[in-house]
Amino acid sequence: MLFSRRYSPRSEPLLLTDNRRRRSPFILLNLIPLYWLLSSRRSRRAALNLLCLLALLAFGAWRAFPGETREWLDRVEEEYKARLPNVHLPAFSRNAKHPIEKLMSDGQRAWEAKLRRQSKTLDEAVAEYNRRYGFAPPKGFDKWYEFALRNGFQLVDEFDGITSDLAPFRRLSGQEVQSRTRSAARQETMFSVSIADGLAVAGKEVRAGGVKKGDMGRARGFVQSLQAFVHDLPDMMFAVSGLAESSVYPTWEVSQPHNFSAQLGDAQDFISKINDFPVWYKYTNTCHPADPVRQTPDAYQFPLLSPILPPTNFDDVSTEGANPFTRFLRGSEADLDFCNQPDKFYEHGHFYSGWPMFNETFPVFGPGRGPRSMDIRIPSYYYIVPLPKYTYGYDPELGHGQDDDPHDPEWEDKSGTMFWRGATTGGGSSPAGRYAYYARHRLVQLAGQDNPSSMPILHRTRTSAWEETRIDVNALRTTALDVGFTKAVQCAPYRPGGCDGMMRDYRFVDKVPLYEAYKSKILLDLDGMGYSARSMALLASKSALVKSTIYQEFFDDWLQPWVHYIPLSSTFEELFNIWAFFVGVPAHMVDPTLPAAPAHAGEVYDPKGDAALKSIADAGREWKRAHARIVDMEVYTYRLCLEWARLWYQDERDMDYVPGQFEDAD
Ligand SMILES: *[C@@H]1O[C@H](CO)[C@@H](O)[C@H](O)[C@H]1NC(C)=O
Ligand SMILES: *[C@@H]1O[C@H](CO)[C@@H](O)[C@H](O)[C@H]1NC(C)=O
């Protein structure tokens, strides 16, 4: 109970088992001196007296300063949680629950607790805001709350992402916030969005000698998302990125609170001008100066240009020693720490890209926040201005999506394959030619290339017990994966042979409309050069989303892993075990002496797994309809704007929300 207080003041503790695990070291720490004292007869009385005194003191502190005590407990919990590893679960024993069952029930419990604990009134929402962040909500909070309520918005307390995105800018004066915004918006890949007299417009002023690049649609989409409430916002401005990728990577030195620059001049002096300076170098500059990537940068260079690599070596995934069935992620890989695990950077096209990036703290609004970047998240404009390729149930006549897509088959008619189609995007090719490392290329290669290894697969037997069988990866990849590229882009630097070479080395298939995916029960989603805007449509479908990403988006506080979607690692090493858990394994793959029967759509090898998979597919679809409607994104953006207005005007007026106070009419 102790450590769950922060997250569930009015409801059951969340992640029960976690709490137990979290608490045990503390209990142990307390028990050691206690045991020592009590076991020595002479000190027993003194020890008991001391204990009583301590208990009394703790109780007194709790009564006298309940808020502070709770805050202290919260901090201890945060600290402890930060040290919990994301990935590894306890080793698997045959009698135990499958780790995925546990992840699913933990997720379900957390999600239900989150839904239950939301504030029910404005006063509760204000109190919850104060409790979480230690300061008052911004001016206009009452109108925002009313807007959220009127539109059936459910997660009124879940905006931790906004607070953390804005935290670095809270150190700046209002004047500095304004001058950095104006200056940032004039850079080549940035656009401005200005609000004046209750009207918002996108602008493309450019610095002297510069040429505007990037997509102004992103700023226009942001303007569109303001329309429902812009008349209630004060005059102010935003710098909206014209790129899908994050642009703000202040160095570790300048991000330190004690070393924060109070005043910066022209943003032009802090933005890279060339596109061949890869993100990896920007990223390493954000690491602690003592981290290996900064101490010996030469040791962490890009991998050598190599011809196509072998697919993931599953012979490494052995049952001896390490347990292969514990490597399921709890959530996304957005918190992967590449400063301390530098080898992992090879696997992400993100780092092989270059575009204009700031090395100081400039406030820039954009859709997908890359690891350690300081961009401020807004909903992707693709979610607001619908495009056929990213929108579920897109109707060309109506020009937008619908709740039902006539092309989306019923569950029973879907096949048990894992589907992915897409273009060869994955990195910006700086340095060029490292395609084989990008996530999309590795997946297509895994699906298409001969792989004579085998891997341990955990699957249900007829009696519902778990059994482990080594299964041929060639059988797995051809049965489980329906994967291919549909378009070669940015492929000229491919060696050997440029675009033709890439098309020869990887599996290319015909381009298909988005809805073609829905014939599969499992829809894979991978990062390209930036975040994948397709997830929303895939969630809305009647299939289940399996997603691998290192980006954060605006909805991260709302989407529950293992309830609404299945998180996947960027190595894909657990991919076939995810498949085996949910789809089951056909008998002839377990026992090669049996005749192989060709799979057909709707065939179910494991009814329990199938039901679990359907529950995720249904929950994701329900989530999209209940929590990711356009109006839910407007609720997010509205609250973000109030926070931004407070920073913008903090020098001039009191921008905190004061309950019961009349808003002036301006
Ligand atoms: C403060 O920032 C300056 C300029 O970037 C840097 O040279 C210096 O090392 C930083 N100091 C600390 C203590 O981080
Ligand atoms: C920041 O970027 C500017 C412009 O590219 C560059 O001149 C400057 O050296 C960079 N500063 C640091 C600390 O990397």
UniProtKB/TrEMBL annotation:
InterPro entries: CAP10, O-Glucosyltr/Glycosyltrsf_90. GO terms for molecular function: transferase activity. Coiled coil: none annotated. It holds the Pfam family Glyco_transf_90. Residues 332-623 form the Glycosyl transferase CAP10 domain. The keyword Membrane applies. The chain crosses the membrane at residues 46-65. SMART domains: CAP10 (SM00672). Keywords: Membrane, Transferase, Transmembrane, Transmembrane helix. Belongs to the glycosyltransferase 90 family. PANTHER family: KDEL LYS-ASP-GLU-LEU CONTAINING - RELATED, PROTEIN O-GLUCOSYLTRANSFERASE 1. This is Glycosyltransferase family 90 protein. The lineage of its organism: Eukaryota, Fungi, Dikarya, Basidiomycota, Agaricomycotina.
